[in-house]
Amino acid sequence: MSEQDIDRQLVERARNGDKRAFELLVEKYHRRLLRLLSRMVRNQDEIDDIAQETFIKAYRALPQFRGDAAFYTWLYRIGVNTARNYLSSRGKAMPTISEHAANDDDEPDERIVAQDINTPESMLHTKQVGMAVNEAIEALPAELKAAITLRELEGLSYEEIAEMMNCPIGTVRSRIFRAREAIATRLRPLLGTTGDKRW
C-alpha cells in the first residue's frame, strides 16, 4: 500500500468522525509543513499559528478533498495560501531563500561557495553574489517567488507545484524559468558571464 493510499484511508476515516485519523495526518506532516512555512514567515510563533490554522482549514475542507492529488500536496497548497494571506494582511514581504538555506545543512544554498580559497576577496565576492540573489528573489512577483521557493528549497516536482499553486504545469515551468532568468540577470555582472549563459 502506497503512502498516498494510506493518507486516503486516514482522510476517509477522519471524514467519518475518526479524530485520531486526522491526528495521525497532523503528526505525519507537521514538521514538513513547518519547514515550508519557515521559508515564508520569519517569526516562529507566527509560523506555529499559520500551521495550526492550516490544519484547521484542512480539517474543515476534508469533504472537498477529492484524492486526485496527494494529501500533502493539497495540505501544502492550503499552507502556502494561508501564509500568503497572512503576509499580505500584515503588509509583509516573503524573506529571501538564502537567509534560511544558509542555516540548513540539508537544504540547497544558491550562494556560490569558494571551496578551497577562503580569501577575504573570495568571501566578499561570495557575499556580494548572495546579496544579489537575495535582492533578485525579493524583487520577484509573489507567484514567481513561491514557485522558485517550492522548487529549489522544498525540492517539489513541477507536478506538485502545479497542484499547490492551482495552475497548469506549463505555467509553473514558465514561472520558474522567469525567476531563474531574473536571478541570472542580477548575477551576470558579478560573475562576468555574458547574456548567452545563465550563470
Label this structure with key terms:
elongated; Rna Polymerase Sigma Factor, Chain: A; 2 domains; mainly alpha; Arc Repressor Mutant, subunit A; 68% helix; single chain; 9 helices; 199 residues
In a few lines, what is going on in this structure?
This protein has two domains: 1-92, RNA polymerase sigma factor, region 2, helix turn helix motif (Rna Polymerase Sigma Factor, Chain: A, Orthogonal Bundle), CATH 1.10.1740.10; 96-199, Arc Repressor Mutant, subunit A (Orthogonal Bundle), CATH 1.10.10. The chain contains nine helices and no strands.
Report on this model:
Helix 4 (71-89) crosses helix 8 (158-165). This protein has 9 helices and no strands. By secondary structure, the chain is an all-alpha fold. The protein has 2 domains: 1-92, Rna Polymerase Sigma Factor, Chain: A (Orthogonal Bundle), CATH 1.10.1740.10; 96-199, Arc Repressor Mutant, subunit A (Orthogonal Bundle). 68% of the residues lie in helices and 0% in strands. The relative contact order is 0.10. The longest helix has 23 residues, at 169-191. Mean pLDDT is 77; it is low at 94-118.
Morphology: elongated
Number of helices: 9
- Helicity range: 55-70%
Strand content bin:
under 5%
Radius of gyration: 19 Å
Count of the domains: 2
Give a short account of the largest sheet.
none
- Overall pLDDT: 77
Structural class: mainly alpha
The CATH architecture of the largest domain can be given as Orthogonal Bundle
CATH topology of the largest domain: Arc Repressor Mutant, subunit A
What is the chain-wise order of helices and strands? HHHHHHHHH
